[in-house]
Amino acid sequence: MRKKIVAGNWKMNLNFEEGVSLFSEIVNMVKDEVVGDQEVIVCTPFIHLSTVAKMSENVKNVNIGSQNVHQAESGAYTGEVSASQVKSVGVEYVILGHSERRAYFGETDALLAEKTNVTLKHGLKPIFCIGETKEERESGKFFDVIKNQLVNGVFHLSKEDFAKVVLAYEPVWAIGTGLTASPEQAQEVHAFIRETIANQYDAETADNTTILYGGSCNPSNAPTLFSQKDIDGGLIGGASLKSRDFLDIVKVFNA
Ligand code: PGA
Fold first, then answer.
1. Which of 65, 166, 191, 243 has its CA 20 to 30 A from that of 197?
2. pLDDT tens digits for 45-87?
3. Domain ranges of the chain
4. Ligand 1, residues 5, 6, 9, 100: which to mutate, most atoms within 8 A of Cβ?
5. Residue 147 per-residue DSSP state
6. Can you identify the CATH homologous superfamily of domain 5-254?
7. Per-residue model confidence (pLDDT) at position 1
8. Whose CA is nearest to atom 3 of ligand 1?
């Protein structure tokens, strides 16, 4: 059975002390309240990674992710951080292709394919984000947009490597807007993604792929979203900055 995951994306929020304090609340709540097998991933800014990775060492089902890596192995890339560097501090996951990186930092599918390769090469697992803009949704072309993001970003991978990828469907119009895709809208796209994977690889690979939903997910809407057949958890932005809200989302899988 595919893994259920709730991942938090802190984005560019919290100074070092605030981040360590939030993470320690999360760890304590996970220990006290989580009873299932769901995995909790916390994707912090680079400055927190080494410390929170150490804090999570003996905590069952809690892992750490970075929000980006550079596509090169190392070298003269002032201000960038490499996959081997994040790996060396105990990180396990890397968010790639977040719509904010695509929109504000010009990250293309071709660049993201390179980042996916370097991420996997260093034994890290990508949380690969895909999703359509408001215009693409309204024009009805969103299935094509999502398929192209898959084809150009991750479908060059071997079946073995693809099996290490977590996908996150994040409709851009729902991110940080308070507008959530309805459970039916999200399920429709998740089912389409799974079918597209089955066509590219095979039914077993599709069935084993964890596909997260992201975009204004909160403790009120998570239960219905996560109960959809093809939705395996969430990528949580705003609500991951509040330990109580984040844990209530994680606990949807306790039941
Ligand atoms: P949000 O962000 O939950 O604040 O909408 C989700 C994301 O960007 O991953």
1. 65
2. 999 999 999 999 999 999 999 999 999 999 999 999 999 999 9
3. 5-254
4. 9
5. H
6. Aldolase class I (3.20.20.70)
7. 84
8. 237
